[in-house]
Amino acid sequence: MKALVLHGIGDLRFEEMPAPEPGPGEVLIRVVACGVCGSDIPRIFVKEAYRYPLICGHEFSGLVTACGAGVDDLEKDARVTAFPLVWCGNCPACERGRYAQCSHYDYLGSRSDGAFAEYVVAPRRNILRVPERVPMEVAAMTEPAAVALHALYRAGGLSAGETAAIFGAGPIGLMTAQWAELSCMGKVILFDVDPDKCALARRLGFRYCFNTAETSAREVIDDMTGGEGADIVIEAAGAPAALTSCLEVAGTGARVVLLGNPASDVTLPAPLLSRAMRRELSILGSWNSTYSALGTRGEWQVVLQSMAASALLFSPLISHRVTLAHAADTLTAMHRKAGLFSKVIIQPILG
Ligand SMILES: [Zn+2]
Ligand SMILES: [Zn+2]
Asked: Which of 33-47, 92-106, 219-233, 291-305 has the least mean pLDDT?
């Protein structure tokens, strides 16, 4: 098969290699679409990866090609997507169904090979069928959409008329904003430092997206909430300044959710911490998403059902579609921030 193989920091090679074979309980999937995650860029260009050689890519959809021993409920060419976190099933977190907190997990696209390739192997229990009406490139966004949904669930108990402030208008921030709008919140307000991302958010129909390089988030939120502050605040940028702003705009009793991977240390001014205490903020971590291998209550299942109801919710987030042969150039451009990238989809099935 053809694959985009990472051999070292920044050393991406488009090369030919043997296709993987599905072991017992596993499924070989022909990749139709694989999204580029914000985490893939530092994984490829900045930080040491978990191992080399490595095929990245954990946001994918594809067609069942072959099944390993013991898998008999998926026909050839079945349209599927996969939860990339391979949980151990034997640790206390797994026993509680908290797969994202598994202490011995594997991960397609970061610890083992992922889907920047023509084929990928995933355990059967990680695989969900894609509903008929969902286009495959939209199904490839199940993972980030579930991560965004999880952050909103972490904020808990959304009530009518509440205001959500979301920092970071990348794909995850935009998806979080979309889920917030679907939950009929009062106002959903996005912030980003990049004017192009703000413009994109407005083109996508988000009425309120402000550039924090030009306007103070605190003033915007004060204006829009009559000085009350936001009820739900989501840090989806991973930037120290964004976290500070999150605490500045949070109103009394607000829930602040940490979603973006931190790019560096954060130092918080004492008066801001004291204000967070007085306002009795809840500061909540959010990690990955919930998945149910057998039931219907996991966030992955909710996402696929919502996509089936309206796939249009997600396809406008795609800014680029590239073949595997051209993917390295696009990934490099993303790393150099040469252009505006929202969700980038690699389509190995097209070459
Ligand atoms: Zn991801
Ligand atoms: Zn486990």
From this structure: 291-305
Instruction: For residue 273, report the distance from its CA to the centre of ligand 1, in Å.
Output: 31
**Rounded distance between C-alpha atoms, residue 300 and residue 141, angstroms:** 10
Q: Residue 62: its pLDDT value, please?
A: 98
Mean pLDDT for 195-213 is 93
Position 351 pLDDT exceeds 80: no
The backbone torsions φ and ψ at residue 185, rounded to the nearest 5 degrees and listed phi first, read -75, 160
Q: 70 C-alpha to center of ligand 2: Å? A: 22
The ligand minimizing its distance to the Cα of 143 is 1
Q: Which ligand is nearest to the CA of 106?
A: 2
User: Which listed ligand is nearest to 103 at the C-alpha?
Assistant: 2
Ligand in closest contact with the CA of 41: 1
Q: What does the block give as tokens for 183?
A: 């939950």
**pLDDT grade for 135, boundaries at 50, 70 and 90:** very high
Distance 38 CA to ligand 1 centre (A): 7
Question: Which bound ligand lies closest to the C-alpha atom of 86?
Answer: 2
CATH no. for 2-141+314-350? 3.90.180.10
Rounded to the nearest whole angstrom, what is the distance from the C-alpha of residue 26 to the centroid of ligand 2? 18
CA 238 to chain centre: 13
CATH 3.30.200.20 fits 148-285, yes or no: no
Residues contacting 274, CB < 8 A, separation 6+: none
Task: Report how far ligand 2's centroid is from the alpha carbon of 113 (Å).
Answer: 19
Whole-prediction pTM: 0.96
Instruction: Give span(s): CATH 3.90.180.10, the chain.
Output: 2-141+314-350
Going by the DSSP 8-state scheme, the letter that residue 81 receives in this structure is E
- Tens digit of pLDDT for each residue in 250-289? 999 999 999 999 989 999 999 999 999 999 999 999 999 9
In the chain, residues under CATH classification 3.40.50.720 are 148-285
